């Protein structure tokens, strides 16, 4: 019974793929002014071209084929021109506002309700307004400058203690950016000294690392929606379990901080980013739900840690390759 089932399933998948391929070929004939596309292979498309390091691979493709390329069945547009990128992000920004609905994004972003993945509309505009006015305003960022300065100072002290030996900066930059974000958002450090709950910090770090690693995971169902009804690889179940752990931690932060604010009679109001969100929730509970607040915290932690540490690492590499620039920066 098992063999006929898998045989039938395979035939359905192949038939669906061939129909989709035929339709796409027919429709593409009627489209004009399409950007050039790199050579593709049957079934796998352009996957064979995506080699590490990715940014150099994409740069080589743009140098050989042009500044604007189209790739994949998901209509990916590779733009390597500053002028073209500016036009995409300003004049035609609404066209590029939405992102593909992949499985990982659904499971990890509260069913596409975070600011980074919400579809263009009222929800996205409201989330963008919150981020612009309440999170990233100049006054808010200035308020937390002491946090950033303090964390950088602790990192420098740690490096000075190890000045007689080689220092590995990649992990230290990652810890720095993570501590800065957690201190600004919820007032807790997760690495180094002065960690209130070492076990809790360790558990959250492990969950967060697994979360980031799995966020980029792709499944066959992302490209063949007919496969979404069966979780062959078990990846979706793994995502659900991991998100349950992440949500439990985020809900604990929200509930714990809410109790502190309620017991303090306003003493701690608006000293942390989460405090400001909870104060707005008290005024408009229907608009600022726990899911919205947890989604904002999640985006801040994910977007504000890995990208920051990567940029710091890249800047340090440039300084080491250009010692004259480092000398100017120091003095």
Automatic annotation (TrEMBL):
Q: Which domain of life is it from?
A: Eukaryota
User: Ribosomal protein: is it a keyword of this entry?
Assistant: no
Q: Does the keyword Protein transport apply?
A: no
Q: Which parts of the chain span the membrane according to its record?
A: 6-23
Provide this UniProt record's keywords sorted from A to Z: Heme, Iron, Membrane, Metal-binding, Monooxygenase, Oxidoreductase, Transmembrane, Transmembrane helix
What GO molecular functions are on record for this protein? heme binding; iron ion binding; monooxygenase activity; oxidoreductase activity, acting on paired donors, with incorporation or reduction of molecular oxygen
Coiled coil segments of this chain: none
Which Pfam families would you find in this protein's record?
p450
Protein's UniProt name: PREDICTED: cytochrome P450
């Amino acid at each position: 019974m098992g063999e006929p089932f898998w045989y039938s399933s395979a035939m359905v998948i192949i038939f669906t793929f061939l129909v989709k391929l035929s339709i796409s070929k027919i429709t593409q004939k009627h489209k004009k002014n399409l950007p050039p596309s790199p050579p593709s292979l049957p079934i796998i498309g352009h996957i064979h071209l995506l080699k590490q390091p990715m940014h150099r691979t994409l740069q080589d493709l743009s140098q050989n084929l042009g500044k604007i390329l189209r790739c994949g069945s998901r209509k990916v547009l590779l733009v390597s021109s500053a002028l073209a990128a500016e036009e995409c992000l300003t004049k035609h920004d609404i066209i590029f506002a939405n992102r593909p609905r992949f499985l990982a994004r659904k499971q990890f972003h509260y069913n596409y309700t975070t600011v980074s993945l919400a579809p263009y509309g009222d929800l996205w505009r409201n989330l963008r307004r919150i981020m612009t006015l309440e999170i990233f305003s100049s006054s808010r960022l200035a308020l937390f400058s002491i946090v950033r300065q303090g964390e950088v100072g602790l990192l420098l002290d740690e490096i000075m203690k190890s000045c007689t030996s080689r220092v590995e900066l990649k992990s230290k930059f990652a810890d720095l950016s993570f501590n800065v974000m957690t201190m600004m958002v919820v007032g807790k450090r997760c690495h180094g000294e002065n960690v209130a709950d070492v076990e809790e910090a360790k558990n959250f770090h492990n969950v967060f690392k697994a979360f980031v690693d799995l966020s980029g995971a792709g499944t066959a169902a992302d490209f063949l929606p007919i496969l979404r009804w069966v979780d062959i690889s078990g990846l979706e179940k793994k995502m659900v379990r991991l998100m349950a752990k992440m949500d439990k931690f985020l809900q604990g932060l929200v509930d714990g901080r809410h109790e502190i604010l309620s017991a303090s009679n306003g003493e701690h109001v608006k000293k942390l980013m989460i405090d400001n969100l909870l104060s707005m929730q008290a005024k408009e509970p229907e608009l600022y739900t726990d899911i919205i607040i947890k989604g904002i915290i999640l985006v801040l932690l994910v977007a504000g840690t890995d990208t920051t540490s990567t940029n710091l690492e890249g800047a340090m590499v440039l300084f080491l390759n250009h010692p004259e620039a480092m000398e100017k920066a120091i003095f």
